[in-house]
Amino acid sequence: MMFAQLKRFEDFANYLWSYPATRIGARVVVFFMIAGFAISAIQAYQLHKTVNYLVLLVGESITLGLVLSARGARAVGLSLVSILAAFTGSFYYLFFSFSAHSVSLVPLRLAESIQITGVLFQIFAKLSLGRSFGLVPANRNVVTGGAYRLVRHPIYLGYFIAHVGFLLGAFSVHNLIVLSLLYGVQFVRILEEEKVLRLDPLYQSYMVRTRWRFLPGIF
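Now predict its structure.
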C-alpha cells in the first residue's frame, strides 16, 4: 500500500514537472532560498570581518548563477525520498546554532582555514559541473573533468571539509547532531542521484574509472 502511494506521488511529481511553469517556479523558490543564505553570509561578514564568510558569499553567489543558468535535464528523479533528501541536504544550515554555548575545539584561525579550503574546493567542483548543476537528481550531461576526476560527487566533499572546519570552530552537541543527520541525508541523496545517472552508459564508464563517491578510501 505504502509503495503504491509513493509511486503515485512520483508519477504526479513527474506530471507536474512536465510543465515549464513548474520547473521555472521550482528554480525561483530555490534561488530565493539560496539568496537568503547569501544575505546571511553578508551580514556575518559585516559583523565578524573574517575571510571565511567572504569566501562563503562568493561560493553562494556562484550557486545562484548556476541555478539560473542550469540546462534542462535529460532525465530526472522525483521520488518523495529524492525530493526530501535534496531539499534537506541543501537547506540544512537553517538548523545550525551559533549560540554562546558553542566552543572552539582548535584555534579559530585553523578552523577558518579548514572551512575556507572546503568552500574553495566546493567552488571548484561547482564550476567543474557548470550548467549541469541542480538540486534534485537529474542527468544534465555527465561531467567527468575538473574536480570530477577525483571523486564522483566532489561538491559533497567540499561541503564535508567546510563542515569539519565549522564544527571545529563552533562545536556544540546541537551542531554535531545536525551534521550527523545531514550526512545520513547526503548518503541517501548520492544514491538517489546515481539511480538516475547510472542509466547513462557514459556515467557507467565513469563509475568504473572513478571508484569513490565523495570520501576517498571510505565511500
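The mean pLDDT is 90.
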